[in-house]
Amino acid sequence: MNNIISPDERIDDLEIKNYHIIQNKKMFCFGVDAVLLSDFARVKKDDTVLDMCTGNGVIAMLLEAKTEAKYITGIDILEKNIDMANRSIKMNEQTDKVCFIQGDVNDSREIFKEKEFDIITCNPPYMENNKGLKNEITEKIIARHEVLCTLEDIISNASSVLTHNGRIYMIHRPHRLTDIIHIMKKYKIELKRLRNVYPTIDKPPTMILVEGVKHAKPYLVIDQPLIIYNKEGSYTEEIMRMYGK
User: Fold this and answer.
1) C-alpha span between 143 and 122 (Å, rounded)
2) Model confidence, pTM
3) Could you give the CA distance from residue 148 to residue 104 in angstroms, rounded to a whole number?
């Protein structure tokens, strides 16, 4: 497999269906947040799925492995990401159900059909453009900061290509929850499910998982807390299950 990667790349095991993923150590590599989001998303048989800000395609690949989606499309603005993602699905023989498109999330209305997708997933840039420290590497800035697309860009474009009662799943930071609720309502998406993610049981949440439904009535379900690490530093039983261990 090593003959398909460049010197800065590596092949990592996704630990499901013997799938692997190509990652570049100089760019943004996936972490536990991608695993959490792929587990949180409720994808039904024959659902059509769009993964916005797909990066190297990890969420799309995990969803193909875990669900019976009809097809899964990933979109990312960086050519390098799409190149790695395409080589990964070719290596995994996932090309019959997964494809990747280089494009701007802000052009979703032109790239895709109106109401084309039942499900949208997104692990977006967490940091507002004018806040937080920025890495020197441009690709990492794009992955972490809202320099090319904002939270509103993602939700507004998602609303345009979601079906009636289509669902959007995101992982984000707790301090952005009020923004998420406000922007979702603006684009006729109702927050229906929320799960707080805690590093350990005795610390405040560092991430939130959200599910919004287009044209739904207000009714919010808060799932039980998700704890990542036991006190001794090992993954909890639930996280181990998500990793297939």
Assistant:
1) 12
2) 0.93
3) 8
